[in-house]
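In response to reviewer comment 3 from the previous cycle, which asked for concrete evidence that the modeling workflow produces usable outputs, we include below a single protein chain processed end to end. The sequence was submitted unchanged, and the resulting structure tokens are shown without manual editing.
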Amino acid sequence: MVKKSSKSSSVKKTSITESSKEPAPPPPPMPKSKLTKDELKQFRNALLALRDQLTKQVGSMESEALTKGDSDVSVDHMADHGSETFDQDFTLGLIENEERTIQEIDEALDRIEEGHYGVCERCHESPAKANKIAPHIPKARLEAIPWTRFCVDHAREAERDREVEEAQEDEE
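The workflow returned the following structure tokens.
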């Protein structure tokens, strides 16, 4: 009888080990957008117009930043040089933010084409943490920030995560 129990326990250990080696199940398929075709068309047009506007702004800010950097500075005006350098750095930071927004707009346009625009990516990833209307982002939020990927709750969570990462980078 001792041999049987040792065999059965070794079988159990093997099955536990084998089950831990199994790959995690794939995430559920991304739900389809619940917005109508007309609503999707309106959001697409708004996103395209915003992308064009931001692209023009970035172009003018880039040329402005480059022309400021080309100005002749004499030794007598070092304070002016410092101010111009600050302005140029500030403008370059704005350009970086606008380019990030343009990238997010392009990703939102891709989500429209793929049919899952307006679906919260984090609600989809972890349905247990989904909000009450999950996984869909409320239309009012999409109207305010049409390129958003997250519902309000998960946007707050993503912002906290980003702040923690930045704080850790600053410490290094």
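Residues 1-19 have pLDDT under 50 and may be disordered. We consider this sufficient to address the reviewer's concern, and the full set will be provided in the supplementary archive.
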